[in-house]
Amino acid sequence: MKVIEDSAPCLLHLFLLAELIVHSASRPASSPAPCRTFRSIFHQVDLLMGLSRKLHDLSDEDVLMFESMENRLDTLPHLPHSAEYFRSFKVNESLSQLSLHTQSFRQHIDWLKLARENVSLPSRAAEDSSTHLLKLSNLLNASLHQMNEEVPQLPPLSLPIASTSFDVLQFSVEISDRLKIFCHWSKRVLRYLQRLNRCPKH
Ligand SMILES: *[C@@H]1O[C@H](CO)[C@@H](O)[C@H](O)[C@H]1NC(C)=O
Ligand SMILES: *[C@@H]1O[C@H](CO)[C@@H](O)[C@H](O)[C@H]1NC(C)=O
Ligand SMILES: *[C@@H]1O[C@H](CO)[C@@H](O)[C@H](O)[C@H]1NC(C)=O
């Protein structure tokens, strides 16, 4: 009798341990694949961040001059920065938003590439950015698929005609600045998603 009494707490421990093992065994099923995708997404955002600086080839002084001018592209995504946004954060919605914003930047950058070519300005950085935005789009698409979410489709935007070099330079600076902000925002969202998914730190 004594033996059974003594073993009761021990059995409880065993039971708890077994449950712990079952839980931790079932958890990774929802973890590694999204985590791998998030890491690839992070990498693409890093590359884009580097490219965003090169979208114009102006001196710091000239950039300041353009930055002091009014923004003209109100089609560029507006990013919610508030603490409220991150408090009421929904994973599926943030990924959909990231996807839509990525598509929007890609349309703006493809347009910028043509605009720069039209006025004989170098367009290589725009072309490379477009390539990485497409990769980013595909990765976000994969991520949404992993969560059984629909991939949102951004309708074609109507963008202005940039007829002078001055216009094109102004648009280049505006898109460059906004792309940089988007990259920072995306990283913040991604770090949040990685924490929610208990992804290992890299
Ligand atoms: C995200 O998920 C929530 C609940 O799981 C759902 O109510 C909402 O409609 C989803 N949003 C999108 C954009 O799919
Ligand atoms: C580039 O030039 C073509 C031909 O003049 C014009 O149709 C097009 O709108 C221009 N693109 C941009 C982005 O300004
Ligand atoms: C998303 O990926 C699926 C295949 O995984 C593809 O059929 C679909 O066209 C993609 N959608 C977008 C918007 O890239």
UniProtKB/TrEMBL annotation:
Protein name, as recorded: Uncharacterized LOC105417170
GO molecular function: cytokine activity; growth factor activity
Gene3D superfamilies: 1.20.1250.10
A single GO BP: positive regulation of cell population proliferation
Organism: Takifugu rubripes
Example of a GO cellular component annotation carried by this entry: cytoplasm
Signal sequence interval, chain numbering: 1-26
Keyword Signal: yes
Keywords, in A-Z order: Signal
Pfam families: IL11
Keyword Signal: yes
Record-annotated membrane-spanning stretches: none
